[in-house]
Specification:
By secondary structure, the protein is mostly helical. The chain has one helix at about 25-139.
Length: about 140
């Protein structure tokens, strides 16, 4: 005698049972077919479960990576105000140095002008002196 939970299910009607408690061939075939379907469904669900577990593991790995990256970015963001302050300090220093450089360039131009004047004056004096020497020698 075949004992199965399918025998007690509502799908199994009294028309498939024989008088002495045995089941007919058609009932047995139907039960086996239902059993195969249930086993196929169970295998499909097991495959789907494995796929979902793989996806879950991949997502957990990604969440771990993203959490780590988020912590890293938060640390970098925390240091951002200090970096901005440092950049502002460098900018002010740079502007001051540019002003000083401009002043030094102006001083240099003034000194170059003074040197040119001294050269011209010196050249004029030498020419004047040479003219006098030439005049004394011709007399």
């Amino acid at each position: 005698m075949l004992s199965s939970p399918l025998l007690t299910s509502p799908l199994f009607s009294q028309s498939y049972s024989l008088s002495d408690g045995e089941i007919s061939f058609a009932a047995r075939q139907k039960i086996e077919q239902q059993l195969r379907r249930k086993e196929d469904d169970a295998r499909a669900l097991a495959g789907h479960l494995a796929t979902l577990q793989t996806a879950r593991d991949a997502l957990l790995k990604e969440v771990t990576f993203l959490s780590s990256r988020n912590a890293q970015l938060e640390e970098e963001a925390a240091s951002l105000p200090a970096l901005r302050e440092e950049a502002l300090s460098y900018r002010k220093r740079n502007e001051l140095l540019l002003v000083l450089l401009g002043e030094k360039e102006e001083e240099l131009e003034a000194l170059e002008g003074d040197i040119k004047e001294v050269k011209d004056l010196y050249r004029s004096q030498i020419e004047d002196l040479l003219d006098r020497v030439a005049g004394v020698m011709t007399k």
